[in-house]
Specification:
single chain, 177 residues, alpha+beta, two-stranded antiparallel sheet, globular
C-alpha cells in the first residue's frame, strides 16, 4: 500500500542516495512514468524510490515473507540460503540497490518460489520435487499435497501484480520473452 499503479515517478537518468549516483539502465532516463511503467521499463530509479519509500523494516518483512535469504526446505540436499545484508547493518544505499536486484543474492529456487507465490494468489508454498508416486499400473500410491508456508500478500494484490508482470511481457522490457 506504499504505491499505486498510477502514481507518477520522474526518472532523470539517475538518483543520488548517500552521495552515490545510481543510474538507470536507459541513458537519460525514462522521464515521467506511472509505477506500472516503472515496472514495464525495469526502471532502476523508480524501483529505488519505491524501496526507500517502503523503508528497511517493511522491505525486510517482504524479503522474509517471500522466503529470500532463507532455506526453502526443498527436498534436495545442499540448499543455500543466498546472501543478504543483515537488517541491523542495512543502510539506505543498500535498500536502494536491493530494490533493483543488486546487493542481494538469491538462489534460483528462492526466486522461483517467490514468483510462484504471486501466481498462487499470494500464497508461498514449500517447493516440492515429487507430486505423486505411482505403481506399475499407474495408480497413485503416495500423493503429496501443497505445503502452504505463508500468505505473503492478499489475493487482490497478487492479482494486480500478475497483471503488471503480464504487461512487462506485452508492453515492456520482457517483450522478447
Amino acid at each position: 500500500k506504499v504505491v499505486n499503479l498510477t502514481d507518477r515517478f520522474f526518472d532523470p537518468g539517475s538518483v543520488e542516495v548517500q552521495g552515490r549516483h545510481i543510474r538507470c539502465w536507459k541513458a537519460g532516463g525514462h522521464g515521467s512514468q506511472s509505477f506500472q511503467e516503472v515496472v514495464e521499463n525495469s526502471c532502476n530509479v523508480g524501483f529505488v524510490n519505491v524501496g526507500l519509500k517502503l523503508g528497511s523494516d517493511s522491505f525486510y518483512d517482504y524479503l522474509n515473507a517471500f522466503g529470500l535469504g532463507q532455506l526453502t526446505n526443498i527436498d534436495l540436499a545442499g540448499e543455500a540460503k543466498g546472501i543478504m545484508i543483515d537488517k541491523t547493518k542495512v543502510k539506505p544505499l543498500d535498500i536502494a540497490t536491493m530494490s533493483m536486484g543488486q546487493s542481494i543474492a538469491v538462489t534460483p529456487i528462492q526466486l522461483a518460489t517467490a514468483v510462484a507465490a504471486v501466481a498462487n494468489d499470494g500464497q508461498r508454498l514449500r517447493p516440492q520435487i515429487v507430486r505423486e508416486v505411482r505403481d506399475q499400473k499407474g495408480d497413485v500410491i503416495l500423493g503429496f499435497k501443497p505445503d502452504i508456508v505463508k500468505q505473503v500478500v492478499d489475493p487482490q494484490t497478487a492479482k494486480e501484480v500478475k497483471k503488471v508482470l503480464e504487461s512487462v511481457v506485452e508492453n515492456g522490457t520482457g517483450r522478447s520473452a
